[in-house]
Design a protein that fits this description.
With about 70 residues, the protein is mostly helical. Strand 1 and strand 2 form a beta hairpin. Strands 1-2 form a two-stranded antiparallel sheet. It has two helices and two strands; from the N terminus they run ααββ.
């Protein structure tokens, strides 16, 4: 696999979120971004097939449809 390099410009707030998530998941920032891309790709494929994505409240079991533009 050939790897390519890119520059990613983030705001301070976005970088803070990336660093915190990477720390909490014990991942590098690169690994976290790769994981996020795979997740986003999976969501896109399923939505293209007409499937819907829901979030469920753990306590009350209320479901909310997640809409991605």
């Amino acid at each position: 696999m050939i790897k390519k390099t890119m520059t990613l410009n983030l705001t301070s707030a976005e970088m803070k979120v990336l660093e915190e998530l990477a720390r909490r998941k014990d991942l590098t920032k690169t690994a976290l971004i790769r994981q996020a891309l795979r997740l986003y790709q999976m969501i896109e494929v399923r939505m293209e097939r007409g499937e819907k994505l829901y979030m469920e409240d753990g306590l009350e079991k209320k479901k909310s449809e997640l809409v991605i533009l």
